[in-house]
Amino acid sequence: MPPKPRPPPSRAVTVSKALSLLLRHAAEKEGLKIDAQGYANVADVLSWRKLKSLKVTFPEIIEAVANSDKKRFALLYAPASTPTETEEKEAAESKEESTTAAITASTTDSTPTHYLIRATQGHSIKSVEAAHLLEKLTLEGKDKLPGTVVHGTYHSAWPAIVASGGLRCMGRNQVHFATGPGVEEVLGQLDQNKEGNGDKGKVISGMRRDAQVLVYVDLERALKAGCPFWRSENGVILSEGMSVGVAGEGEGGEKMVPLEFVDVVVERKMGKIWERGQVVQQWPSEWAQGRNPKGRSDGKRR
């Protein structure tokens, strides 16, 4: 019996996806003014051709920010603010407080030009700078480091990751990581997953819910080696990686998060397949010829 076709996305999902496309990837190409912090004026966003064709309204923008399951967007209430004033305003409040305050302000001030919006992570726009957008993680702040840093990927991508020697940005500014689930939690769910009762549908910021292979990174070891890591305001961990070019290339080599910083890799139904540089279980050769689930391009997620 053929699988049932997926229902069309809801209006809210359509608006959210359009906003993500514009604010993460297409702003410069579409002529939208976006600053180094990733902010664009809501009035300019509403004037974008795709949102105009959808007849998106200011309240729908507010709804997309307020109801995003992964907190994909941040909002700033900044009537008549200069860029410097915007930075000072955001610095005076936490990023989460800024968004909450802006959503509250929208109940009495619905002027789109008074608001700035940005995607919280996932950018491929090179002018958006990590230092302006993200919190840098350091060994000096060990108490603030997440206990789990995990990258979710697919069967077809894992052999390519092994062959290349690490996790690459693949078109985005950084590789994305989540702060859970932990290794023991996933291993404890193996029987449930075999029976179809696992938690693959759980929403986790920094990882697609249908990720099949979980790559766990030793964050402290990576930081000690000089591999930078950041945290977004919605709790996603990110890294642009470090140069690991061939001898003689030096800093000009391709950047990645090397496999030497990977503690363990878990396939959701097989269990551990890799640990500290050693293959624990050989994965099927078919993975290398496979494709990602429909609609999933791990080249944009690794």
From TrEMBL:
Feature: compositional bias, Basic and acidic residues: 89-98
Lineage, broadest ranks: Eukaryota, Fungi, Dikarya, Ascomycota, Pezizomycotina
Catalytic activities: 2'-phospho-[ligated tRNA] + NAD(+) = mature tRNA + ADP-alpha-D-ribose 1'',2''-cyclic phosphate + nicotinamide
An example Gene Ontology molecular-function term: tRNA 2'-phosphotransferase activity
Keyword Cell cycle in annotation: no
Similarity remark: Belongs to the KptA/TPT1 family.
PANTHER family the record matches: PUTATIVE PHOSPHOTRANSFERASE, TRNA 2'-PHOSPHOTRANSFERASE 1
Task of the protein: Catalyzes the last step of tRNA splicing, the transfer of the splice junction 2'-phosphate from ligated tRNA to NAD to produce ADP-ribose 1''-2'' cyclic phosphate.
Organism: Aspergillus sclerotioniger CBS 115572
BP terms from Gene Ontology: tRNA splicing, via endonucleolytic cleavage and ligation
Name of the protein in question: 2'-phosphotransferase
